[in-house]
Specification:
single chain, 344 residues, Aspartate Aminotransferase, domain 1, seven-stranded mixed beta sheet, binds pyridoxal-5'-phosphate
């Protein structure tokens, strides 16, 4: 088995999840009759301390459905230029929600601050200006960073002062909660809505949840239908999601420890620079590009059984996840060291 450090999206359902799929109680969820989906939605709402939740097919779907629900078409979304919804959703915000993205470059290189957000919220009734439909944050960020809860609360305060809702793309929200050792509901308290992915570090095969107030989730349910995301006997895919929330959250700490170990080991290799200390399960690193051919490096690593995606902006990313072990991490670091040495 290769050590697959490409992404936590490659995780596979556990035996308990497969068993839950086989035995799930089912019904037609589009008319609200799938008991397993309903139970998953209730689990998620409870975990995040919100009134309601909606099961959707993917993180991208959850994000687009949130935009469509918070914003009218032509509204503006205040968001970091590094956010997944800006960079990695193929322009869906323009196509589906028909919003204008007001992308900002965070001065700290990591997340938007309250001051930066405040400056971009539109005020007044000038007909030339777009309306600010929502403020968009990530927790953890696409760059594997955790936005400090006080900063997140400060952004929410600013947005709410202007009656603008705040959405958190929480594809890895539970990674952040586990890393901070805080109750997810407390971490989610300042914001209006969140999306949460079941199919990354939590290992469920499919699905995300969109959570928030009942009125928001009711409106999102209609939008999910419009987007073609109403799923009939969806309990077969909701059942492993329930196992994910019940059994797989606390073990994310292992992935985080493995990421720290991996960063420590590869950081000792001459020429390797860890660009950010891992906060969750991601290790970002770079190396002198003049001396290294990334394609060869990736091919050599693959031949040693270590899989990676190509670098973005000269930065490599390794992601630790179930069932990668400490021994795998040590083996991967040795492979990186060997390969870099032979490529010189
Ligand atoms: C921060 C973030 N948001 C959203 C998504 C989209 O999730 P999906 O691949 O389920 O559409 C991802 C996927 O990696 C992500 O990292």
């Amino acid at each position: 088995m290769p050590i697959d450090l490409r992404s936590d999206t490659v995780t596979l359902p556990t035996p308990a999840m497969r068993q839950a799929m086989a035995t799930a109680e089912l019904g037609d969820d589009v008319i609200g009759e799938d008991p397993t989906v309903r139970a998953l939605e209730a689990d998620a709402a409870r975990l995040l301390g919100k009134e309601a939740a909606l099961f959707v097919p993917s993180g991208t779907f959850a994000n687009q459905c949130a935009l469509l629900t918070h914003c009218a078409s032509g509204d503006e979304v205040v968001v970091s230029e590094q956010a997944h919804v800006v960079v990695h959703e193929a322009g869906a915000a323009a196509l589906l929600a028909r919003v204008q993205v007001r992308a900002l470059a965070p001065a700290n290189g990591r997340w938007p601050t309250a001051v930066e957000v405040a400056r971009r919220i539109r005020v007044g009734d000038d007909i030339h200006l777009p309306r600010t439909g929502c403020v968009w944050l990530e927790q953890a960020t696409s760059c594997g960073e955790i936005m400090p809860p006080v900063d997140l609360a400060a952004v929410a305060r600013v947005a709410h002062r202007h009656k603008v809702p705040v959405h958190v793309d929480g594809a890895r929200f539970l990674n952040a909660a586990v890393a901070l050792d805080v109750d997810p509901a407390r971490l989610a308290a300042p914001v209006d809505s969140l999306s949460l992915s079941l199919s990354k570090g939590l290992c469920a095969p499919v699905g995300s949840l969109l959570v928030g107030r009942s009125a928001f989730v009711d409106a999102a349910r209609r939008n999910r239908k419009r987007m073609g995301g109403g799923m009939r006997q969806a309990g077969v895919i909701a059942a492993p999601g329930r196992v994910a929330l019940a059994d797989m959250v606390s073990r994310l700490a292992e992935d985080h420890a493995n990421a720290r170990l991996l960063a420590g080991l590869i950081g000792q290799i001459p020429g390797v620079v860890i660009t950010r200390e891992p906060a969750i399960n991601m290790v970002f690193w770079r190396i002198d590009r003049e001396r290294i051919d990334w394609n060869r490096l990736r091919a050599r690593l693959a031949s040693e059984g270590v899989l990676t995606y190509p670098p973005e902006d000269g930065e490599m990313r390794f992601v630790t996840h179930h069932p990668i072990t400490e021994a795998d991490v040590r083996a991967a670091a040795l492979a990186v060291s060997r390969v870099i040495r032979t490529l010189r």
